[in-house]
Amino acid sequence: MRADARKNRDHLLAIAGAVITEQGVDASLRDIARRAGVGLATLLRHFPTREALLDALLRTSFDELTARAGELETSSSPEDALVAWLRDCVACAHEYRGVVALLTAAIEDTESALHASCVTMRAAGTRLLARAQAAGTARTDIDGTDLFALVAALAWLGDQPSLTPRSDHLFDVVAGAILASAENGDAEEKRRPQTRG
Amino acid sequence: MRADARKNRDHLLAIAGAVITEQGVDASLRDIARRAGVGLATLLRHFPTREALLDALLRTSFDELTARAGELETSSSPEDALVAWLRDCVACAHEYRGVVALLTAAIEDTESALHASCVTMRAAGTRLLARAQAAGTARTDIDGTDLFALVAALAWLGDQPSLTPRSDHLFDVVAGAILASAENGDAEEKRRPQTRG
DNA sequence: ACCTGAACACCGTTCAAGT
DNA sequence: ACCTGAACACCGTTCAAGT
User: Fold this and answer.
1) Integer Cα distance of A145 and A140 in angstroms
2) What is the pTM of this model?
3) What average pLDDT score do residues A46-65 get?
4) Taking the alpha carbons of A11, A14, A16, A22 in that order, is the dihedral positive or negative?
């Protein structure tokens, strides 16, 4: 890549990150180009689709997420690792408002620029889930795609301004549902709702 | 309302229902007007915002949902009533692709044409939840807004083509989390995941 | 190689002019 | 009262022309 092209690309990414952080993934590409001081066609040349732009913006976060899954697999208990990683996933998908809809669309669309990242992410989650399932601390009637869907749904909730205040609590509710609720004697981290008044 | 205006309105609603069923809530209003054989300005005169149009389209469903909550309150057990109603809610929010985002936005926006319907819906859900909580069959650490959020998240999942096949199963997972998991001896309808191989 | 302006076919909003 | 076409300021896509 020519030096001027590289500079344009980097600058576009920086501006796009700022604009999309501010306005969400539906931000006007024309506006991003304008603020970056280049023509819209130049932006499209570097990032032929909105997905390609988002992929470039999220690549670092996605790579970190994959690496973190690997670390957690050795450093934490199966249960803690799974929940901690899910929390990171939600935070990552929440990085740009509205991006989670693009991610769910990309998981099955092999043409999407975001497809590879999504599949990698799902694979990492599947491993952590399988580990917890093998340890008897996660329910066995869900798979990696279900996990992906639940993370997406929770990230979506966090994107809805009126429901954002509830998203942390509802994360706990859903995480609790993913973990096997009983059967294993070790109850140190478990709080089940008490219904006595 | 003048007779010709009434006729225009009814026809617009019929066409809008068909187009939005087909293309989702972001369908072009211009296209709807075109297919209805009127000017775009005429559509906007009857329905000043997209929300107003959706409200008109969904009003019957919403009213039925409220009525159904009342019936279930007397005809079914607290637990069955809650779950059945949640299922209906998801189905209703799923009626037009993408409408659930408008509904979550409307719950706090008193200016939205959909606001009243959302609040009524949440109130009906809150009653069914309180009844189940009083009976000891629903967890007590969630409220009507949490319930609204969970229904919205599940409806959103059903809207994502790649995740639609999982939405029924994930409904069960989340519904299970809403119901108190243990403590009551009656286990007839409960299946907890068994982890023994 | 890389960039760009302009043409294109859309969108929702607004309003003066018609019946 | 009710309807409408047209003007407006946007949008993303495409491409011939420039450096």
Assistant:
1) 13
2) 0.90
3) 96
4) negative
